[in-house]
Amino acid sequence: MSVPPPAASTVCAHVVLDLAAATAGAAIERLATGFSQVAGMPAPRALAALALQREAQAATFLGHATALPHARVAGISRLSVAFGRASRPIPWTRDGDLVEFVFLGAVPAEQPRHYLEFMRLLARALSEPQSAAALRTAPDEAAVRTWLTTHLQLR
After folding, report:
1. What integer pLDDT is reported at residue 78 of this predicted model?
2. Which one, 21, 75, 101, 134, has least CB within 10 Å?
3. Domain of 48?
4. Is residue 2 part of a domain?
């Protein structure tokens, strides 16, 4: 059994502070555009389509007003994540769960366990009220990226 790469090898490809989206699909499509500069990544529309296919199987609502849509991508070597903070809560599930934070992951097809480690770190960080509040009120992209580095080991 292979060991997942360290979380520090995870890259934050894109940050959107005022993500305007009326649906989960629109949020995923918007965040997918931020992966265009990541080596080996499919075109944004193709990445969004993969994530939407996964989302159709089961909603990726994590709780804590957070969703973790993702797609397994062959040919990439490390997990890449785009972060969006919704300008208005986004309806995510059929039950009406609302999302404020969206983390779109492009997961190396050969290393899905790395994404599970990322999810564990994220769930732990957002379950702490002060930590979640810091992400919610971060004033700019630099502050969000500092939060992502501190809590999720993203670079």
Report:
1. 85
2. 75
3. 7-152
4. no
Global pTM reads 0.90
CA 119 from chain centre, in angstroms, equals 9
Structural Rg of the chain based on CA atoms: 14
Distances (CA, A) of 28 to 50, 78, 128: 10, 19, 26
User: Among 36, 70, 66, 40, which Cα is nearest to 55's?
Assistant: 70
Task: Render pLDDT for 84-100 as a digit per residue (tens, 0 to 9).
Answer: 999 999 999 989 999 99
Name the domain count of the chain.
1
Name the CA dihedral angle for 132, 130, 97, 79, rounded to a multiple of 10 degrees.
30
Residue 6: predicted pLDDT: 44
Q: What is the C-alpha separation between 32 and 42, in angstroms, rounded?
A: 10
Assign residue 116 the CATH number of its domain: 3.40.930.10
